[in-house]
Amino acid sequence: MNSAISAIDDMDRALVHALQLAPRASWELLGPVLGARPDTLARRWERLTGAGEAWLTGLGLRSGTRTPCMAWVEVMCTAGTSPSVGDTLVADPYALGVEHTTGGRDLLTFVAVPDLPTLYRYLYSRVQLIPGVVGTRTSMVTAVHYAPDRWRLDQLTPGQIDLLTGRSRRWAPSAAPAQPVVTALQEEDRPLVLALARDARRSVASLAREFGMSESTVRRRLVRLEAGQSLRYSCALASGLSGWPVSATLWAEASEYELADCAAAAAGLRETRTCMSVSGPWNFMISARLRTVEDLSRYTADLTRRLPGLRIRDSAVALQVRKSEAQELDLRGHRLRTVVPDIWSDPDPANSSPSGV
Questions:
Q1: C-alpha span between 106 and 132 (Å, rounded)
Q2: Can you tell me whether residue 142 is helix, strand or coil?
Q3: What pTM did the predictor assign?
Q4: 3-class DSSP state of 99
């Protein structure tokens, strides 16, 4: 990673916002929307990614109609060991997110593995055997109402957004149909998907060369995976540069018949990054991006005002986000590297090992 400090400006933020909306759109398509030359945009993106200030990743979290078993794992550690425990979890390909947090846990980890039996083996044979871990508490994800790849910066104007999304639909052969048909992430697709985890803007030509495929084959597979919801993209700007540097998590309880309303209300707030139904002591979980720590009380008040039946039971502020969507981050939230998220492989320590690029 280039350690040089680059100056972030409004054009950089507009570029990230545009790539959140149209991740693989060409520079030629983005140029007229952003009012910049395509080569200028390409140089800006190279500078941002080289400094770890922005990145665009692809994640394959579905195999056919089967989604992985996802869970939030709270990890409790003996005094002084949470940094080393965090190091181990950051290097783990199944731990897609890792935070040091306030509250009744030392670390909060978002995990994805193929199925329930694998989750059981993963917890007892990997997480609970990490030196320093004295306990874990697991909340299974039963429904994802609002995913992190839907969170956006607010740099583009409504006119630019309309222009970009309209052009992107006309331009992109891989645009998903109105009623997408779920298709399988096949075994031969996995290397392609994992290659996009570090850089989801890799060209079709470079992917074809690496995997010995024709460019038409690569394009056809990307079309199928994107349209079939087996591959999703997420573009991020380092939290300290985004204007939303604070990450917070809330656990809440609501009647089952109110969960859809809770999700809609949470998604309607600018700060909400994810909301999920979960099992465990409470049945609803929300993560948010905030401008300041003090904004947490206002955000919580907004939630309960919109939904009086929603009862906030616990909350945590991230002291440090170590990893997000398979990207290892530094203290400033800059990307250090990608830990390849091959969540469909065997997590048995005897058969697999963490890998990074």
A1: 11
A2: strand
A3: 0.89
A4: strand
